[in-house]
Design brief:
Blueprint lengths: L3 E7 L5 E4 L8 E3 L3 E3 L5 E2 L9 H5 L3 E4 L4 E6 L4 E6 L4 E6 L4 E6 L5 E5 L7
Parallel strand pairs: 1-10
Antiparallel strand pairs: 1-4, 1-5, 2-3, 2-6, 6-7, 7-8, 8-9, 10-11
Length: 121
């Protein structure tokens, strides 16, 4: 089973961009203060271990906010890990694989949550 992003909620004052080097169709700009439900859930790519930002950039799903450029991946051990370009780690999201939502806060930081059946912002 894999992790998929089914909702991105952008609570920041700036647009955010999401990209996936494995699937170009996943690229999307999400306007400030809006929610985006992908037509096809975005697969979170698998990477064993904890690569540095430069190594993760070409393999991991990326989200660019005004706060940082983040890479995140399925660590193959029931968790989503990530790192920002500025060096800060994203708090690991520990959950069995499944559907997730990403929340971009008003400060541009990101968090993950288990997806709900509602796509409200």
């Amino acid at each position: 089973m894999a992790y998929h992003i089914t909702l991105i909620t952008n609570k920041s004052a700036s647009s955010v961009a999401i990209t996936n080097p494995a699937h170009e169709a996943d690229a999307m700009l999400v306007a400030n203060g809006s929610a985006y439900v992908p037509k096809r859930p975005i697969l979170i790519n698998k990477i064993s271990g904890n690569p540095n930002y430069a190594d993760a950039l070409s393999q991991a799903v990326n989200i660019y906010t005004f706060n940082d450029n983040y890479c995140f991946w399925d660590n193959t051990n029931s968790s989503v890990n990530g790192i920002g370009q500025k060096g800060g780690a994203i708090p690991a999201f520990n959950m069995s694989a499944g559907d997730l939502q990403i929340i971009v806060s008003s400060t541009g930081t990101i968090t993950f949550a288990k997806a709900t059946s509602s796509a409200t912002a």
